[in-house]
Amino acid sequence: MYRPLLIAWTLSIATAAPLAWAQSAPSKSDPLDAKAAVPQLIYRSSLADYRVFPDDKLGSWKEANENVGRIGGWRAYAREAQQAEPDPTPGGAEKPVPVDSPKPMHGGQGGHKMN
Q1: Which is higher by pLDDT, 113 or 53?
Q2: Which tens digit of pLDDT belongs to each residue from 67-91?
Q3: How does DSSP assign the chain, residue by residue?
C-alpha cells in the first residue's frame, strides 16, 4: 500500500534535485554600494480585498424583547442551537432530553434559601 507512495516520493525528489542545482547563482552585489541594483519592492495591503457589508436595520429594543418573549425566551434559542449541532453519539444512540428548569446543585454553599 505504501510502496507506490514511496516510489512516487522518490521520483519527485530525484527530478526536483537537478532543478534546484540549475538555478542561477545569486548576484553578488556589494551591500554597501548605494548604487547597487535592487529588486523593486511591491506593497499590497492586507485590506485590499476588504468588502464593506451593509448595516442591518436596527429596530426598537422593546420590539426585540417582545419578540423573544413570544417565541419562548432564551430556551427557544438554546433549543435551536442544540438542534443545529451534529449528533456526537456513535451509532445514533439517544441523546439526553434537555430539561427546561435547572436542577438544584448539591454541596457547596447550598445556594440561596427562600422562605
Answers
A1: 53
A2: 888 988 888 888 888 886 665 665 5
A3: --HHHHHHHHHHHHHHHHHHHTSPPPP---TT-TT---PPP----TTTT--PPPPPPP--HHHHHHHHHHHTTHHHHHHHHHHHS---SGGGPPPPPPPSSPPPPPSTT------
